[in-house]
């Protein structure tokens, strides 16, 4: 993992042997940025000098500018990484074999030590547009959760519903009465954040546990979903995503 | 005004019985015409099947007695009764099947209702369920085995719940309603609900799309389906872990009650759940992940069974 990030000696040697041509030098930020955009929009025109066969696509964002600058900084000397950066978010393309993408993204995240949300997906070079779209939607869902590295597996139900507008519309209608009552919405959010632990959620809300139970019963009455059932809790959680998944501040790729 | 089925049959059939008793030529053709006419009228009047059957029996008894009073060909009269009953039922039901199929195919005639609810039946023969619905109102049976109720979805749901309660046992009814012009979509939806309810191992009862919303979105999205396959593949190879996850899901995520159901020690279930997390990357002690695991197992099994 880290050998890719650190572009170690072996990597340099292999590249010299295997590819007669090279990526633009790391100093040529503008050209490399443009190349990242081209790949992410699915326009791999075959002039693939120095490019890897497959990439991890890391979509990242933060609530402030500094953490995003840290991402760019962390990858500045990585000759094989391509970055399309924006002010509050961006994409990093990291050469990566299949199934290594999560470890790779975690290694990058760990080096930052800042509140950054990351969504990672993987694809062969010609399918990067699909991987970019997946990473963007995963990031939209992750942005409503604690900072960290997320992949499709972590948000499967939410992702599916974002991709099915008619299902999202039904769930939005279902959850609207709860969203309209801040007290109930807070109770549901706390209950979800504590993974269905009532004692912990009551503590977070600073209310008595029986008060929380009462609010959860009200939520059931309004939606037909009983929050203490795993299926129903997932339905409520996904409905909140459908109702208010934020747009994330990612740069345009074309 | 209630429809007098007995009088209609008496009026239509008397001449045929008389002709048969006298062994007059051509009573067979007359029987077909009369029975067809009566069958169509009963269908138009939406007469329930049990009432038609009872009226047929009564009319046959009375008419046989009447025409044989003065002596006659008893065998021919019996044959006439059978032919009339068969023709009448065929007209009564066949035209109805035709209407159901026409509505499902998207060419609803002018006489069709404004909207229909399509019901997919699992766990019982549609022919058996259809009688329970007939006692509550009009129902059409299509050749594909779907039931069509000429009402909007809420009314159909109420009828389905009442039928389900009456039938008891292992019956699943999946319901979807649409305006008459788009009933084909309702059938697709009912089939989708039915398939999901079956593969997810939901308990018997009445289901609509709202009961399987995120699952339907998940099966409809290719990337999600592929990822679910990857999640569940290592798990399906281990039936003990699958049963543990399903037991925990059934227990609403409560480990203490799952332990009782599985007859295992608390530390055993903890170890198994740890194994599940190692294999799938999803944690069964997190309720949302547990629900995703349940969905993945259901869909994985459905795929394995083709």
Detailed description of the structure:
The complex is a heterodimer of chains A (254) and B (306). Chain A is built from 12 helices and 5 strands. Chain A has 254 residues and is an alpha+beta fold. Chain A folds into 2 domains: 2-155, Alpha-Beta Plaits (2-Layer Sandwich), CATH 3.30.70; 164-244, PucR C-terminal helix-turn-helix domain (Arc Repressor Mutant, subunit A, Orthogonal Bundle), CATH 1.10.10.2840. A 5-stranded mixed sheet of chain A has the order 2-3-1-4-5. In chain A, a hairpin with a 3-residue loop joins strand 2 and strand 3. By secondary structure, chain B is of the alpha+beta class. Chain B is built from 13 helices and 5 strands. Chain B has helices at residues 5-21, 27-44, 49-68, 74-104, 126-134, 153-167, 183-199, 213-220, 222-236, 239-250, 255-262, 266-280, 287-304, and strands at residues 115-122, 140-141, 147-149, 172-179, 205-207. A 5-stranded mixed sheet of chain B has the order 2-3-1-4-5, with helices on both faces. The longest helix of chain B has 31 residues, at 74-104. Chain B is elongated. The two termini of chain B are 52 Å apart. At the A-B interface, helix 7, helix 8 and helix 12 of A face helix 8, helix 9 and helix 13 of B.
């Amino acid at each position: 993992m880290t050998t890719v990030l650190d572009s170690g000696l072996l990597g340099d040697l292999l590249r010299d042997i295997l590819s007669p041509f090279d990526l633009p030098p790391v100093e040529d930020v503008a050209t490399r940025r443009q190349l990242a955009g081209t790949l992410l929009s699915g326009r791999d025109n075959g002039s693939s000098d120095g490019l890897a066969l497959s990439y991890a696509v890391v979509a990242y964002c933060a609530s402030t500018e500094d953490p995003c600058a840290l991402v760019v900084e962390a990858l500045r000397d990585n000759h094989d990484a391509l970055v399309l950066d924006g002010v509050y978010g961006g994409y990093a393309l990291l050469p990566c074999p299949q199934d290594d993408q999560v470890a790779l993204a975690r290694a990058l995240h760990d080096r930052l030590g800042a509140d950054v949300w990351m969504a990672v997906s993987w694809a062969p070079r010609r399918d990067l547009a699909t991987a970019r779209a997946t990473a963007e939607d995963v990031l939209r869902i992750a942005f409503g959760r604690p900072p960290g590295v997320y992949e499709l597996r972590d948000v499967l139900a939410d992702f599916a519903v974002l991709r099915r507008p008619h299902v999202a519309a039904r769930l939005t209608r279902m959850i609207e009465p709860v969203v309209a009552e801040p007290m109930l919405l807070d109770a549901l959010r706390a209950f979800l954040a504590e993974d269905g632990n009532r004692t912990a959620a009551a503590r977070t809300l600073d209310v008595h546990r029986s008060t929380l139970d009462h609010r959860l019963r009200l939520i059931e009455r309004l939606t037909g979903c009983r929050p203490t059932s795993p299926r129903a809790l997932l339905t409520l959680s996904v409905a909140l995503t459908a109702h208010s998944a934020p747009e994330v501040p990612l740069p345009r790729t074309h | 005004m209630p429809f007098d089925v007995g009088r209609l049959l008496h009026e239509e059939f008397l001449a045929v019985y008389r002709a048969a008793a006298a062994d007059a030529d051509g009573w067979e053709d007359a029987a077909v015409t009369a029975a067809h006419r009566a069958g169509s009228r009963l269908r138009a009047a939406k007469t329930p099947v049990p009432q038609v059957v009872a009226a047929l029996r009564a009319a046959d008894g009375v008419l046989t007695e009447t025409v044989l009073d003065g002596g006659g060909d008893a065998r021919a009269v019996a044959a006439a009764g059978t032919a009339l009953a068969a023709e009448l039922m065929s007209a009564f039901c066949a035209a109805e099947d035709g209407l159901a199929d026409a509505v499902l195919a998207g060419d609803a005639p002018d006489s069709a209702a404004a909207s229909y609810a399509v019901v997919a039946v699992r766990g019982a023969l549609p022919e058996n369920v259809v009688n329970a619905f007939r006692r509550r109102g009009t129902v059409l049976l299509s050749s594909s085995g779907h039931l069509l109720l000429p009402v909007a979805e809420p009314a159909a749901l109420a009828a389905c719940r009442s039928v389900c309660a009456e039938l008891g046992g292992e019956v699943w009814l999946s319901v979807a309603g649409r305006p008459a012009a788009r009933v084909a979509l309702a059938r697709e939806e009912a089939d989708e609900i039915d398939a999901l309810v079956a593969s997810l191992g939901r308990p018997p009862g009445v289901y609509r799309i709202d009961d399987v919303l995120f699952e339907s979105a998940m099966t409809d999205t290719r990337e999600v389906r592929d990822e679910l396959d990857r999640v569940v593949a290592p798990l399906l190879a281990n039936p003990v872990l699958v049963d543990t996850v399903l037991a925990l899901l059934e227990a609403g995520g409560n480990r203490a009650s799952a332990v009782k159901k599985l007859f295992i020690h608390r530390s055993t279930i903890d170890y198994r759940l740890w194994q599940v997390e190692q294999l799938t990357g999803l944690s069964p002690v997190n309720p949302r992940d547990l629900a995703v695991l349940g969905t993945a197992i259901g869909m994985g099994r459905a795929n394995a069974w083709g």
